[in-house]
Amino acid sequence: MILKQLQKSFQLNNWSIRYKLILHFLLISILPSLVIGLLMGWIVNGIVEKQVNGHTMQLIDNVNKSLDYYAGNIQNISYFISMNPDIQAFLSEGKEAIDDDREEYRMSKFLQGFTSLYSEVAGIIVVRPSGDYFSNEMYARTGDSLAKESWYREAVQAKGIFKIIGHPANRNVTTHSNYKDSEVVSVVRAIQDPDTQKTLGVVLIDLKLRVIAETVRDVRLGKSGYLMVIDDKGESIYAPKNSKVGSLGVALPGQQLSGMFAQTVGGQKLQFIYQKSSFTNWTTVGVFAVQDSVQEIKDINLYLVTFVFIVCMLGIAASYYLSHSISRPISQLASFMRKVEEGNMSIRIPEEREDEIGLLGRSFNKMLSQMTRLISQVWAEQRLKREAELRSLQAHIQPHFLYNTLDTIQWLARKDGAKEATEMVEALSKLFRIGLSKGQEMIPLTDEIEHIRSYLKIQQTRYKDKLNYNIEVDGSFDDLFVLKLILQPLVENAIYHGIKERRGPGMITIRAIISEEIMELVIQDDGAGMTEARLEALRAVLQAAPAVHEASAAQRTAEERQQGQGQAASYGLRNVQERIRLSFGETYGITIESKEKAGTTVIIKHPIIHRKGQGTHDTHMEGVNRG
């Protein structure tokens, strides 16, 4: 019970007009403001976010260019070293080529010049395939051959192509400065004989990580964002101390050289913007928390929230005021109506207002005056109704008298052997009996077919061999009901305007068809047909039906006779069309197809109505029969 009351209270139709107006005003004032505020916030945030991402990508691009510059310098150094004659002699002859102190000093100064000119270089070492090496800053930790080192093999496999190894790990090489493995990045290049492509040796150069750190660490992304550099294996080349990612444990999506994505790391959702260098194969990644927002976005959101709040407050105040000014006179009008419900017909609403409420008040006063007049009129109409019922009771005697008279005439004709007259009287008797149908509007289809069969039998007696007919309605239609007397006007038109106008005998065919849950009654003749102009005019008349005509049937018939036989003929069709559409709706009715000198086909679309208790139209049928 409580649940039903709650459901009833939440139904909009049960609200008072004041609360409906309040809701309406709130919707048209507050809802658009909220939508505009949210839309502006979304657009502005998107624009600012796009600008921030673009600025970040530009910073990353600048960092990549700096790193490419340093890597390019190291590559050039490796080329210069490989082309030096003293280095070439060392690679070809071994240590015998530098037995002279001057030769060794010259090579040492040559390598030292690179470390002095390029501060990013931590050390240079040249190694022969035999394991002999030369360097002024780097040396082997043990006596094992350096040609067995993994970096040496990688350089040989690269076949003279400059290659960045990354941080050294577990190598048998150290420097006088004793750099840690995490403080340098190693690059190698194999020196090959240009004629035989045989590897003569390998140049190993260590690049100080400090140079990379100085390039990257000053770039700030928001409050806590930073840049980091990783190699093509995802291992960290450089990451700041506050890095939450370390060696990037998240895989970059696809094979794209640049892009952005978000991923949760350590319980925090991070935004990654990256760009890969095609020269070094290093990827510079910008990392910042998704929750970090630019101050401009916060300010814009604050202004939007303030604007929406002020609009909402003004909208609520205006809604209450306007709803009260509109609902108050309506409530007063309802109070006057309740007094009329209690029986006070003399009350009148003051006609002071000029708005719609005043118009309602004046209309209400006129209605009360009209009701007072009609009440007195009803008493007179009731008296006239009782008199009409008495006349109707007397009129019911006449059909029974007519039936009895026709039966008497039929008996006398049969007694005298007048067979044709007997059949005519029998058909006429059935025609009247079915036509009256005890006052019912809906009759079985079998009775309607019997009625038209009697009518055709009478007409065939009149026209002899000129009129032939065929009724194709089987027993599957026995349980269907139709409006009575819908076939006779159409068959009459077929006879007088079709068969009668043609030369020689004619045929009228009547069929019943079930098509898409609709019953179609088809009346087809091979008579004179009609012209296109006449057909279009007749269709226009049928399309305009049903219409409310104040004139009586007799008056309309007289008018149509004055306008010509063609219009008089359409009255029967229009009458059937009006009855069907008024009873069942615009879906049903009459359609006509005709061709001059070829005949006419009239189709009646009628709903399928079964006998009582067997169809969905029974309730409607009973109401029509009673009415």
Note down, in words, how this protein is organized.
There is one protein chain. The chain is α+β, with helices and mostly antiparallel strands and 627 residues long. It is built from 16 helices and 20 strands. It has helices spanning 2-10, 17-83, 85-93, 101-117, 150-158, 209-216, 295-341, 356-395, 397-415, 419-436, 445-463, 488-499, 532-544, 553-563, 565-584, 618-626; strands spanning 121-127, 133-134, 138-140, 163-166, 173-175, 184-192, 199-208, 226-230, 236-238, 258-265, 268-276, 283-289, 442-444, 467-472, 480-483, 506-515, 518-525, 589-595, 599-607, 609-610. Strands 2-1-7-6-4 form a 5-stranded antiparallel β-sheet. A hairpin with a 3-residue loop joins strand 18 and strand 19 (599-607). Helix 2 (17-83) packs antiparallel against helix 7 (295-341) and helix 14 packs antiparallel against helix 15. The longest helix has 67 residues, at 17-83. The radius of gyration is 53 Å and the shape is elongated. The relative contact order is 0.06. The model is unreliable at 392-397, 547-566 and 613-627 (pLDDT under 50).
How would you summarize the topology of this molecule?
Blueprint lengths: L1 H9 L6 H67 L1 H9 L7 H17 L3 E7 L5 E2 L3 E3 L9 H9 L4 E4 L6 E3 L8 E9 L6 E10 H8 L9 E5 L5 E3 L19 E8 L2 E9 L6 E7 L5 H47 L14 H40 L1 H19 L3 H18 L5 E3 H19 L3 E6 L7 E4 L4 H12 L6 E10 L2 E8 L6 H13 L8 H11 L1 H20 L4 E7 L3 E9 L1 E2 L7 H9 L1
Parallel strand pairs: 14-16
Antiparallel strand pairs: 1-2, 1-7, 3-5, 4-6, 6-7, 8-9, 8-12, 10-11, 11-12, 13-15, 15-20, 16-17, 17-19, 18-19
